[in-house]
Amino acid sequence: MAKKEKYTERIVIDPNIHFGKPCIAGTRITVEDVLELVQEGIPFEEIVTKYYPDLDTDDVKACVSYATDIVRSEEVHLEKI
Description:
This protein is mainly α. The chain is built from 3 helices and 2 strands; from the N terminus they run ββααα. It has a single domain, classed as Winged helix-like DNA-binding domain superfamily/Winged helix DNA-binding domain (Arc Repressor Mutant, subunit A, Orthogonal Bundle), CATH 1.10.10.10. It has a two-stranded antiparallel sheet with strand order 1-2. α1 crosses α3. The longest helix has 17 residues. The radius of gyration is 14 Å and the shape is globular.
């Protein structure tokens, strides 16, 4: 994925697909499903060849970028004890 290309071109949120869960554009594959495979340590290339041949590695990278941005934008409120 080119550095200037944003994951927003690859990740879509449509209330009519998987109840609005983020999916890879043009598919019904959720970001969550892809990230579960990443979490298991499965290499990106294996994810696209064995699990989701309709995707390419840039789609997997877009899922990771999406998750990173979600975490980055979270507000953390610490409670003093």
